[in-house]
């Protein structure tokens, strides 16, 4: 067996600069190549993106030599996980109360609403939460203690943002859950000062806000990097660092994040395209095809 050129290129790029030069063969062990556990996760992520497969955690744990990875490549693997998403085929619209049926928004006296910030009916903003100037929030949301929503943030309805989550500008769709300590940043080139050496002002940088799709959950302590899009009903595991787009209904974990499975609207992990808890059914489709062009 010979190693594919793409695989050897990926490994060569990941090897530490201090590693001894060596010829890459199927028998080359990951240890000999100087790849530590974090490098192996990076290797798996790059391998998945290049070959369009998801490496099960068990297969990654059992991969000790480059040949082990090469043997995972299926000849017909052409669709990467990032190009596929799940679509619910029997979702029913959920009735919501009309805004006029909801009570007025509650804002705790210690919370801080900036100039022009708007909070919809039925929403509750708890202790020491801070909403920057112009932030707009829909109805029936809950923001826990110490939540920060930066300038330009838009929040839909029925969104729950738990204690100390920090959102420096983002578009948060309906029914999203941000668990405690989530961090969403929007500056792709953060610097304290300009090249002239003076402190940066608002006009010195171009914000790149994150989008979190309807019904998605971001686990505690996860970090979302600028400009990425989280698909509807996706689930980001606690502590993940998400550095690229996540498809709808995807389950991702790790730093940098990896696509490790699919989840139902109810939050249950999907073994196939039917949920074993709630019975919801799904179709897989490629993102660059019309919605009617399903591949499964
Ligand atoms: Zn379900």
What does this structure look like?
This protein is of the alpha/beta class. The protein folds into two domains: 5-82, ACP-like (Non-ribosomal Peptide Synthetase Peptidyl Carrier Protein, Chain A); 85-189 and 203-296, UDP N-Acetylglucosamine Acyltransferase, domain 1. The protein is built from four helices and 24 strands. It has helices spanning 5-14, 37-51, 57-62, 66-70, and strands at 84-88, 106-107, 112-113, 118-119, 124-125, 130-131, 136-137, 142-143, 148-149, 154-155, 160-161, 166-167, 170-172, 177-178, 183-184, 210-212, 217-218, 223-224, 229-230, 235-236, 241-242, 250-253, 258-262, 282-286. The strands form four sheets. The chain has a nine-stranded mixed β-sheet. The protein has a seven-stranded parallel β-sheet with strand order 3-6-9-12-15-18-21, with no helix packed on it. It has a six-stranded parallel β-sheet with strand order 4-7-10-13-16-19, with no helix packed on it. The longest helix has 15 residues, at 37-51. The model is unreliable at 290-296 (pLDDT under 50). The structure holds zinc ion. InterPro entries: ACP-like_sf, Hexapep, Hexapep_transf_CS, PP-bd_ACP, Trans_hexapeptide_repeat, Trimer_LpxA-like_sf.
Q: List low-pLDDT spans.
A: 290-296
Small ligands present: zinc ion
Please name the CATH architecture of the largest domain. Answer: 3 Solenoid
Q: Whole-number average pLDDT? A: 86
What is the level 1 CATH name of the largest domain?
Mainly Beta
Distance between the termini: 32 Å
The largest beta-sheet arranges its strands as 2-5-8-11-14-17-20-22-23
Number of helices: 4
How many domain regions?
Answer: 2
Largest sheet: 9 strands, mixed
- Listing every helix as H and every strand as E from the N terminus to the C terminus, the arrangement reads HHHHEEEEEEEEEEEEEEEEEEEEEEEE
CATH topology of the largest domain: UDP N-Acetylglucosamine Acyltransferase, domain 1
- The CATH homologous superfamily of the largest domain is called Hexapeptide repeat proteins
Helix content: 10-25%
Q: Would you tell me the structural class of the helices and strands?
A: alpha/beta
Keywords: Repeat, Transferase
Pfam families: Hexapep (PF00132), Hexapep_2 (PF14602), PP-binding (PF00550)
Protein name: Carrier domain-containing protein
GO molecular function, one term: transferase activity
């Amino acid at each position: 067996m010979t190693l594919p050129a793409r695989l050897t290129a990926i490994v060569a790029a990941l090897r530490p600069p201090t590693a001894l030069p060596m010829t890459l063969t199927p028998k080359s062990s990951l240890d000999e190549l100087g790849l530590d556990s974090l490098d192996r996760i990076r290797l798996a992520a790059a391998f998945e993106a290049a070959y369009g497969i998801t490496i099960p955690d068990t297969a990654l744990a059992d991969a000790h030599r480059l040949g082990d990875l090469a043997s995972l490549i299926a000849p017909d693997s052409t669709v990467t996980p990032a190009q596929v998403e799940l679509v619910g085929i029997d979702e029913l619209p959920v009735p919501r109360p009309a805004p006029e049926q909801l009570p007025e928004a509650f804002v705790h006296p210690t919370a801080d609403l900036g100039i022009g910030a708007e909070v919809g009916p039925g929403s509750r903003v708890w202790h020491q939460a801070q909403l920057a100037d112009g932030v707009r929030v829909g109805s029936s949301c809950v923001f826990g203690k110490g939540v920060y929503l930066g300038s330009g943030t838009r929040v839909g309805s029925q969104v729950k943002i738990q204690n100390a989550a920090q959102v420096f500008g983002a578009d948060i769709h309906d029914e999203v859950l941000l668990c405690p300590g989530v961090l969403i940043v929007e500056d792709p080139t953060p610097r304290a000062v300009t090249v002239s050496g003076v402190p940066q002002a608002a006009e010195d940088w171009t914000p790149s806000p994150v989008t979190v799709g309807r019904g998605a959950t971001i686990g505690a302590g996860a970090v979302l990097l600028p400009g990425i899009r989280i698909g509807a009903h996706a689930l980001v595991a606690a502590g993940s660092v998400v550095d690229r787009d996540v498809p709808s209904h995807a389950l991702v974990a790790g730093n940098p994040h990896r696509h490790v499975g699919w989840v139902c609207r109810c939050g249950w992990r999907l073994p196939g395209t039917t949920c074993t808890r709630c019975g919801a059914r799904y179709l897989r489709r490629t993102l660059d095809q019309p919605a009617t062009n399903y591949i499964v």
